[in-house]
């Protein structure tokens, strides 16, 4: 065996290796590893629930603090949840790395074709994303107004107006950025 520091430890001279220049014909024929092209109703509902619950991360710390009756313990519970959420995000991101970017669109296009993927894209864009942004903005407006109304809940009209102003300002900033 040659004394090659770059060769893997299990290198055998009879085992063909992949050419670093990209010529895969010299490589050993290996079976292709692929996911099943199947999306069920459960998968679709899981995606939608995951998107909707994503805005709930801003509401849950208040409920945890109220029910735990201990600020320190509630902070530990919220931090633990965020660590688990981060781990989930890393693993979910690793699932999309090998092939293409595009989220559910790519997977649905591969499984069912162009039209269902296009419809999924528009349904996400028009319905799910708008509802998610609206819910997150409503929650944010509620949190911003709560200190001003310390003895009672903020009026729903004030929350709606502030949420509309936030969305309008975000849209205005996006238009300015689009011109640059």
UniProtKB/TrEMBL annotation:
The chain crosses the membrane at residues 40-64, 122-145. Its main location: membrane. Keywords: Membrane, Transmembrane, Transmembrane helix. It is a multi-pass membrane protein. It holds the Pfam family AA_permease_2. The keyword Transmembrane helix applies. GO terms for molecular function: L-amino acid transmembrane transporter activity. The keyword Endoplasmic reticulum does not apply. Residues 1-23 are annotated as: Disordered. Residues 11-23 have a biased composition (Basic and acidic residues). It is found in: Membrane. It comes from the Eukaryota. GO terms for cellular component: membrane. This is Y+l amino acid transporter 2.
